[in-house]
Design a protein that fits this description.
The protein is an alpha+beta fold. Helix content is 53%, strand content 13%. The strands form two sheets. Strands 3-4-7-5-6 form a five-stranded mixed sheet.
């Protein structure tokens, strides 16, 4: 039985279509992809499997690569480069400012050192002048009251040191007649020598370490109380005889600031004293 011409024609048509599809999917130098498809009953070729993931990724990347992406990347890079340049310029400016501040600080330190040297020179000269004034006072007082008066430089400045025996009876804070005459002369010379200035006159009382025996009931706190009472008596007398009250301050130290040993009578005699300091007023 001869095959139906229409059937043969349809089969030939299907073969031709499959062959054409295979040719259409042939890529240069590679195997055709015809195995991945089949011819339908209607004579059309259709894929029976998807392309490989690598091919799909290439297609996706190609679709994502928009024409404006490169331009945006270029603009971002330019912005970062500009910020980097600005940061470097700021860093350089700060370094220059730091160097300028360092030089200024060094100059200020040098100026401060110079001023301190000048101030020290002024202070030394002031102390020298004040000591010279106290030396003249001491010499004038010694002319009428020989012995027991000394002018010297202490840790705080010039000091006029008066022995206890020139001012008080033993164990008492009451000024003797000799002590009143000496302090009256001293008050006049302080007014004349330091007139027109602003000074501090510190009156400091000191004793030995022997217990108070005469009039002990008047000094229940012992030598500390006696030294304070003597300093206050001298300060009050100076103030009543013309030394400005605003200059004067007092303190008593009892036996706690000796200038000699308390172990013998000669040392104890030196420790029983009143000291008068004349210093520039505090700012």
């Amino acid at each position: 039985m001869q095959p139906d011409s229409a059937s043969v024609s349809g089969a030939s048509s299907r073969k031709f279509s499959a062959s054409g599809a295979a040719n259409r999917f042939r890529i240069a130098g590679r195997r055709p992809l015809a195995a991945a498809g089949e011819v339908s009953k209607t004579g059309k070729f259709r894929l029976s499997a998807w392309p490989s993931p690598a091919l799909l990724m290439l297609a996706v990347l190609g679709a994502c690569q928009q024409p404006g992406t490169a331009e945006r990347q270029k603009l971002r890079q330019q912005a970062w480069e500009q910020r980097l340049a600005e940061t470097e310029a700021l860093s350089q400016s700060l370094q220059q400012s730091n160097e300028a501040l360092r030089r200024e600080n060094l100059q200020l330190q040098r100026e401060l050192s110079r001023l301190r040297r000048e101030d020290a020179s002024v202070q030394v000269e002031t102390v020298r002048q004040e000591l010279a004034e106290l030396q003249r006072l001491s010499e004038a007082l010694q002319a009428s009251n020989p012995g027991g008066i000394e002018a010297l430089v202490g840790s705080q400045g010039p000091i006029l040191r008066l022995d206890e025996g020139l001012l008080f009876a033993s164990g008492s804070h009451q000024l003797s007649e000799q002590g009143q005459g000496l302090l009256q002369q001293l008050a006049g010379q302080l007014r004349d020598s330091f007139a027109g200035g602003d000074y501090r006159v510190q009156v400091l009382g000191h004793t030995d370490d022997q217990p108070v025996q005469r009039q002990a009931e008047r000094y229940p706190k012992g030598n500390l109380q006696l030294s304070c009472a003597r300093a206050l008596e001298v300060a009050d007398f100076l103030q009543r005889h013309g030394v400005p009250e605003s200059w004067i301050s007092v303190a008593g130290f009892g036996p706690w600031q000796p200038v000699a040993s308390h172990g013998d009578e000669q040392g104890r005699k030196q420790n029983r004293r009143v000291e008068i300091l004349v210093l520039p007023a505090l700012d």
